[in-house]
Amino acid sequence: MQSKKVGKILELFISIKGDLNRSNKIDIDLDENGVKNDKFYGKNVQRSVLITSMASYDLSTQNNIDMNYGQLGENILIDYNPYHLEENSRLIIGDVILEISQHCTLCKSLAKVDKNLPELLKEHRGVFAKVINGGNIRKGDAIYLLDK
Hints:
seven-stranded mixed β-barrel; mainly beta; three-stranded antiparallel sheet; single chain; M1 Pyruvate Kinase, Domain 3
């Protein structure tokens, strides 16, 4: 199978239990249970990694909603828009292989940022992925889309 470079990692985040803010990281470790040290680690492998595109933040900004990166709950912020990808599509980042498991659903908690945000981003918040092959990923790492 072949792959093509589609983008790179811009930011990485984990959620820490008891902390409402997301912790920005230089690198994160992943395994079949998700993002290590994240409060959602091991909870639901189908939703273990949330990938968000800069396109979501750009759409928000175009609608006069300013947010800090990480406020959409993502683990991985990328400069590639994966929202068109079908389930079972695979992204490769170094040794890590992530498989798109589902598109992110409407999240009412985004209304805490702005009341219009849930409706605005209902199709553009992100995609969930499960970890097929774990490893370490870093800011700036290239992202490849595996051809089917």
